[in-house]
Specification:
Length: about 500
């Protein structure tokens, strides 16, 4: 019987996977669920075993399955099929990537028995040595702030406590971001193993994955993988017959963007309203249930197994120090080839937009790309050659954030985008502090009124002053970062506001 490996990712589900599965069921083809390679425009994508290895087809629709099955049964050349892609690893979108976090996604079956060989190896080492190696690697948080991971790990480990926690922030809510979802749907064991390793290094015995409610397929895969890990004694008591025990569970959020902020997330985990906590104390000292808590996002924790497999020193040589390692960029919006691209730090924005993305989907001229989610900066064409490092992006008043890029052609109105930034903050604010709660409303009103005002310059100056207040007086980055898209639009595209 022929085996077909079919993407079980949300991309594939949205683009007709169910109909393809029904069609495959009528043929003599055994289906195996895998994650997505991240070529969104080619989903549903399937791979077939052949004498020379797997060959890929995509996008596959239900009405071409019978033709494909006939080719397989006849032993004919697959490259005659209209959806033939060949060896997916030779595809231009994949070939030049450096996949560490996503090394198994798309290839490994979701039903494979986990081994957690990296966890087994690190359990033979001193926990403090692991944190030292993490420092050598230069790993920084991939959730947006780019904070050095080893500082968090060491703080949690060194803070006296009878209980410590590892919390994964899987409340991925930024526009144009989907790497967390793809990882959890395609290789949840990378996240689970990374959390267990972090637990051992920090002296934590319990972990939580705070998952956004809009990710049902990720929830299914996480629950299945956690259950399987317990069955094989890779979670629970005395893992690999060591003295280390680690329990893990999933907590599903309720759709609040603000719970992507770590202290609001912890409030929600404790059963309270998702609302900002004043800092200090930092979560690493007094976090969940007032205990030392390591909070990282999915990609940060999923980077841990490959980092220790590679070694801290070799991992630190990737990228452009101090922006070390790889990061999964996600490109979406008005772009021809949207999807996930894992690269070392240091590649340019232009490479992603033009070389990988293929330019605008509409075919119209490029005008802007927003990087870093709804609170990220809008960049102009003149800034596309900026290297994607934390330092280089900071010099132009932008940030990498979670690695999401949203592309716009020349039909975009940046005044409308600035208005949307204020409106987004208004809707998603937790309401605890006045600059965010009220400033977002006044900002939206000011930007809305610019086409009718008799004194544009005075109102624009007022917007800048309002941004100063929000940036400097908000309790968290919800209000503090809302000025970034507004100011970047005003400065780079002033003609849209006058």
């Amino acid at each position: 019987m022929t085996t077909a490996y079919i993407s079980n990712d949300s991309f594939a589900h949205a683009l007709g996977r169910s109909a393809v599965m029904e069609a495959l069921a009528t043929q003599d083809i055994d289906c195996v669920d895998v994650g997505s390679y991240g070529l969104a425009w080619l989903e549903p994508l399937i791979e077939i075993d052949s004498p020379s290895g797997r060959v890929a087809f995509g996008p596959v629709s239900a009405d071409v399955v019978s033709d494909l099955a006939a080719l397989i049964n006849a032993g004919a050349n697959y490259d005659h099929h209209s959806s033939f892609l060949g060896d997916i690893h030779e595809h231009p979108f994949i070939k030049k990537q450096q996949r560490l976090v996503f090394r198994n996604v798309g290839y490994a079956a979701l039903t494979d028995t986990p081994t957690y060989t990296t966890l087994k190896t690190v359990l033979e080492r001193d926990p403090h040595d692991l944190i030292n190696e993490l420092e050598v690697s230069g790993l920084r948080g991939r959730g947006g702030a780019g904070f050095p991971a080893h500082i968090k790990w060491r703080t949690v480990a060194d803070t006296p406590a009878d209980q410590r926690y590892i919390v994964c922030n899987a409340d991925e809510g930024d526009s144009g971001t989907f790497s967390d979802r793809m990882l959890m749907e395609g290789d949840p064991d990378a996240l689970i193993e990374g959390m267990a390793i972090a637990g051992y290094a920090c002296g934590a015995s319990h972990g939580y994955i705070y998952l956004r409610s809009e990710y049902p397929y990720a929830l299914h895969e996480l629950k299945r993988s956690i259950s399987r890990a317990y069955d094989h004694k890779l979670l629970g008591n005395n893992i690999f017959d060591s003295e280390f025990s680690f329990d893990l569970q999933v907590f599903v959020g309720a759709g609040a963007y603000i719970c992507g902020e770590e202290t609001s997330l912890l409030e929600s985990l404790e059963g309270k309203r998702g609302q900002i906590r004043a800092k200090p104390p930092l979560p690493a000292i007094a976090g969940l249930f007032n205990k030392p808590t390591l909070v990282h996002n999915v990609i940060t924790l999923a980077s841990v197994p490959s980092l220790f497999d590679l070694g801290g020193e070799q991992y630190g040589e990737l990228g452009v120090a101090p922006s070390c390692g790889t990061i999964p960029f996600q490109i979406a919006g008005n772009v021809k080839y949207g999807g996930l691209i894992e690269l070392e730090f240091g590649h340019t924005v232009r490479e992603l937009v033009e070389d990988y993305g293929g330019g605008t989907r509409s075919g119209r001229p490029f005008r802007s790309v927003q990087i870093g989610g709804p609170l990220g900066a809008y960049l102009s064409e003149a800034e596309l050659d900026t290297p994607l490092t934390y330092e280089a992006m900071q010099t132009i008043g932008a940030g990498i954030g979670h690695g999401g890029l949203v592309v716009f052609d020349d039909t975009v109105d940046l005044r409308e985008q600035a208005e949307y930034a204020f409106e987004f903050c208004e809707i998603e604010s937790c309401g605890k502090c006045t600059p965010c709660r009220i400033g977002s409303v006044r900002g939206k009103e000011l930007v809305q009124g610019l086409p009718q005002t008799s004194n544009v310059e005075a109102d624009i100056q007022l917007i800048h002053e309002l941004c100063d207040v929000m940036e400097n007086a908000s309790l968290c980055q919800m209000g503090g970062m809302t000025p970034i898209p507004v100011r970047s639009a005003l400065e780079r595209f002033p003609e849209d506001f006058r």
